[in-house]
Amino acid sequence: MPIDVPASSGAPHASPPYAAKPAPSRRGLKIAAVAGVCIAAVVVITGILGRNHEHAQVKTWTSAQAIPAVSVISPTVETGAQALVLPGNLQAFYNAQIYSRVSGYVHGWYQDIGARVKSGQLLATIDTPELDQQLIQARADLESAQATMQLASTTAKRWSTLLAKDAVSKQESDEKSGDYLVKSALVHAAQANVNRLLAMKGFARIVAPFEGVVTARRTDIGALVNAGAGATPSSELFDVAKVDKLRLYVRVPQSYSARITPGTKAVITVPEYPGRTFTAALTTTANAVSDSSGTLLVQMAVDNPDDALKSGDYAQVKFDLPNSGAGGGGMLRLPSSALLFRKTGLEAAVVGPDDHVRLQRVTVGRDLGTVMEIAGGLKPSDRVIDNPPDSIGDGQLVRVISSSAKPSAESAHAAG
Asked: CB of 193 within 8 A of CB of 131?
């Protein structure tokens, strides 16, 4: 049976346990919306600025990489005396090629190659049968002329006597005197012919013209020889050379010719005596530069008392020349890899203070292989590009890196 509970008149009304929260106000919603928009704007702006910065960095890096990276070096200065080594050729102080002055057959030779001979020493004799017959005939002509002159002399004297007695005319006497003079002249002519043939006969003895060494013998017993120098070297009989003192011939490049002065000395070496040196002294120069080689022919004298050096030897000649490099401070040297070989000549790519390239014409004094001596066109303070690309141009902007570093492959590709 249900029980009725009466309503409380004075007790408060209890709320349900899960009642709803009150709704937010309109002002709070607006603030939240504005904050969200601001945050989104900041995110967007930050992204745009970041992308622009990255794009600028990429553009700067790309522009920098487009500029060729080069390594620069400076020419080195060589001070003090400069060594100049050149090839030379040794020749005998005197060298005579001896030919026969008369025609005939070699009767005998008495000195062979390598023999030391004195001046006037007999080398060979020649049989001259034709010359002997000519000499016999000339002597007979001389005797005939002398006999004719004797008769003319006697006749002239007789006619002079008759002229004193008025037995002959003066004209006839003068004719006989004139005939004597003619016959006397014929005697002198015949005598001169005999003397000429005797002098020629003297050439049948081949003698040494000076003291020296027989360096060649090109004849033998019974060989037919002709008078005078023939068209071929084989016509000579002997070569005699004076070798106690030798002449040294060196061709000096034009760029060094001004430093070859009187009193210049050189040290020479020859292959057959490694480690041994000889001294040569300047005697004279050709005083003219050869059109074909551009060199100055220099003659030096070398003493050879022990006959160690031989005529015809090849020699290396070392000069210690005073240095006359750029500005008088020494010769400049530069690696050959730093030079550009172009149709206009040799050039060096010099980097200026503004990192722009200037192609400078240079003059090479001497090629030392991997190193070149620069005679003109550069200064010691110049920054020269080492191993420049062939495409490098005058006025081109470059990026200088450490001289010890090498341009990377990408840089080299960009430079090309």
From this structure: no
Residue 22 pLDDT > 60, yes or no?
A: no
Cβ burial, residue 79 (10 Å; 0-12/13-18/19+): exposed
Q: Would you say 346 and 340 are in contact if contact means Cβ atoms under 8 Å apart? A: yes
Beta strands in 104-237 (DSSP E): 104-109, 116-117, 122-127, 205-207, 212-217, 224-225
Report the CATH fold assignment for 69-78+327-415: 2.40.420
Give the tokens for residue 229.
């120098």
Flag the least confident range among 10-19, 168-177, 182-191, 211-220: 10-19
Question: What does the pLDDT read at residue 376?
Answer: 81
Cα 393 from Cα 233, distance rounded (Å): 59
Residues of the chain with CATH 2.40.420.20: 69-78+327-415
CA proximity to 309, closest of 271, 342, 348, 355: 271
Please list, residue by residue across 262-271, b when 16 or more beta carbons sit within 10 angstroms of its beta carbon and e when fewer do: eebebebbbe
Q: Are 342 and 360 in contact (CB under 8 A)?
A: no
Burial class of 302 by CB neighbour count within 10 A (0 to 12, 13 to 18, 19+): buried
Dihedral of the alpha carbons of 391, 392, 396, 398, in degrees to the nearest 10? 110
Residues of the chain with CATH 1.10.287.470: 97-207
pLDDT tens for 273-326 read 999 999 999 999 999 999 888 899 999 999 998 989 999 999 999 998 776 654
Collect all residues with Cβ–Cβ distance below 8 Å to 323 and sequence separation of at least 6.
Answer: 78, 79, 80, 81, 82, 330, 331
Residue by residue, DSSP assigns 207-261 as E-SSSEEEEEE---TT-EE-SS--SSGGG--EEEEEEEEEEEEEEEEHHHHTT--
What's the rounded Cα separation, in Å, for the pair 413 and 392?
A: 12
Lowest mean pLDDT segment, chosen from 50-54, 121-125, 261-265, 281-285: 50-54
Give 338's pLDDT tier (boundaries 50, 70, 90): confident
Residue type at position 308? A
For domain 97-207, the question of CATH label 1.10.287.470 is answered with yes
Q: How many residues in total does the chain contain?
A: 416
For helices 170-202 and 129-164, give the axis angle rounded to 10 degrees: 160
What span, in angstroms and rounded, lies between the C-alpha atoms of 70 and 387?
8
Write the Ramachandran bin of 294: left for phi over 0, alpha for psi from -120 to 50, otherwise beta.
left
